[in-house]
């Protein structure tokens, strides 16, 4: 029993070439191995059989034995493409000649498997899934999972990038027409080429040739036999899920500095690879390893194996500093999302125009870390080997990235934060999904192709508010770290950043502390007061206070002044910031007298030639303006 080969030709209307799929990866701060684990783990979460189901994600690092290599040579890849591919196919031939060949297996259990049509041109019936064609055939399929974590196009590219010969075997058990079905197919991603006057994309499939001369996967007992002969994960007849066998992973390239230039024992390399995979799982999926309630199971199950079935331990995040801090911050957010508002310390509701975008929780530690059996290399603590980051997540609760702030001076002080987007508001969740690039590794409005200004504003304001809160914590709890991080003391920074606080209200040529002379004429007519002018900024109880001044130009019988502070944001003026903060009038100064009068001041008859200042507390990071209206008592 041998598999048939199909090399994909270009059709008259065009295709995407193999190089185009490889280029989907672009540039990222993540290495290929981390991209692979992140993307495949996210897809496992999206593919769980029910919203409350607990899928299992298993990674195995091993080598095919001699018998299994013979099956690969004589049955699976007995026919190879006749291309002039200078990279993929020569390495595949070289791999097939080995007595033992390296393989990295990514498997999931408790998921849908690769169901639906096997022909990408066939329309699915009703709610039939399209998982098979989305992963095996198509490129860049759109996200169709509500609040899902991954996308097929990018995940597919990362799979092939890990294989030095760009060759994979897909083995899946799914449900078709109400019956379980085993499906197995091989695939390679080489380079485009021409042969016999025809151009080919460089994509190849091994399976069962159908009546349309296309390649279907092996099905049923034939798929069972090949899977078993290759030693792929065994599955019971009703156990759905998928195994992806990545042939000849480039461990030296993937592990980089973890391996030196000497000849190393393959078993040692596989052990190092397995340990690195454990680190990646901890860094990216620790929220899925934690039970949400006491006595419950974690949301996902994880296992890493090397050789055949030697388990590589994955510790609880609570036992791996600094993940224990992130775990505690995560639990605080979970309680808030569950409606338990009893504990508010280090918990913040982030809003955009009184519309919640998510919750931020923070946990700190001062002093030595708890002891641990071994050290893990984690992005969660950055280059300083201390946590001073916020783990950003969408409702799927898969770590997008760790947003850093300056580390504290005290080397025994560290903290971890968790922000989770509000999953009860679809528009909010969609805005943050749109802000992610294909690797899902940060949020930026530059990634948003939508013209929805509100969505971009939600993301921008939320990130700014998170960073403001972290900065405030640093200023109050980390001593002089705020000064060292910015290079200036808070008061000096406030004075140097007036353009950030006060939008369009500074008089021309003026600056902090300048005296604004009364304006005569210029359209004010017989108004008893001059136009309102900005005077300067100062700090009062660590809060920026803006001073505005007007001058009483003539005696009045009685005068009521009403001041309305306004936020200036993205070219618009509003009564509050997008996250609900409002500028506040903290006092009026009439001559040398300070009056607490709210937004309205009354001047009695006889008042004259007085300088009147209005003191307004400014929300951190925003520009403000102010309008002043008056009502003069009738003259007798």
Would you give an account of this structure?
- This protein is an alpha+beta fold and 636 residues long.
- The model is unreliable at 146-153 and 476-524 (pLDDT under 50).
SSE layout and pairing:
Blueprint: E1 4-9, H1 18-22, H2 32-46, E2 56-64, H3 66-76, H4 88-96, E3 101-109, H5 131-137, H6 152-162, E4 167-176, E5 179-189, E6 193-195, E7 198-209, E8 215-216, E9 218-219, H7 220-229, E10 241-247, H8 251-255, H9 266-285, E11 301-306, E12 310-312, H10 323-337, E13 347-352, E14 355-366, E15 388-393, E16 399-404, E17 413-421, H11 426-434, H12 453-477, H13 481-486, H14 490-496, H15 498-501, E18 533-540, E19 543-551, E20 559-569, E21 572-574, E22 584-590, E23 593-595, E24 600-603, E25 611-617, E26 623-632
Parallel strand pairs: 2-11, 15-17
Antiparallel strand pairs: 1-7, 2-3, 3-10, 4-5, 4-10, 5-7, 5-9, 6-7, 7-8, 11-12, 13-14, 14-17, 15-16, 18-19, 19-25, 20-21, 20-24, 20-26, 22-23, 22-25
Helix pairs in contact: 2-6, 2-9, 11-12
